[in-house]
């Protein structure tokens, strides 16, 4: 896996569609009920990484470690000059006035966890929230895995709003492209409003660089549903197996697997714009 700089080939307004901010805990404390305690990785650190890689936009995904307290993300949105959007973790009884305020701040989706170590939702929760956020033109974001994904997809495909599957569904790479979960994901993606993030290639590969086990899944998704694919770093890579991935190397790997500049621009610029509705801003260094 190459690690050289690809920022010179980056299309203007390219977006990291899956990243996080953690703390700093001295200012934005972690949730007492969190399942893990990450190191501080605040917005200034994230923005510096994006500048190094030539990424001008980002989507901040609320992590379990901050629970329902979105103070860290809201701070980032307020200081992001219109270049950042967010995905929240919201209770089902969140008042509509709060949803409207979050929409104004830059939130565009609600996320639900179905992976075994974070599972905190039901399909009923998802369907109820989808009805509530449809007028806002938001979408649902699902963090699932090989065990949970096949059973979820029929209902997710029937939602009245788009649904984004994080980290390529965290399918079991050992089962290959013919595995039940990945086949179901491709089928749903072809026939419905399902979107997929080609983030977490390291997770599919068990944390083993150069992440060869995850590459066939990226290629298949790029070929089958390019109009509903997003790319993200997953910075700062919470709860990963193996060494922490190098974000420049992950970006270079994406460029290798997606050599067509027009397709890269679609995935890095136009697809995120469709879902997250960034402000119209000029490209900036």
TrEMBL record:
GO terms for molecular function: hydrolase activity. InterPro entries: Amidohydro-rel (IPR006680), Aro_Compnd_Degr_Hydrolases (IPR052358), Metal_Hydrolase (IPR032466). The keyword Hydrolase applies. Keywords: Hydrolase. Coiled coil: none annotated. PANTHER family: BARREL METAL-DEPENDENT HYDROLASE, PUTATIVE (AFU_ORTHOLOGUE AFUA_1G16240)-RELATED. Residues 15-278 form the Amidohydrolase-related domain. This is Amidohydrolase family protein. Gene3D superfamilies: Metal-dependent hydrolases. It comes from Allopusillimonas soli.
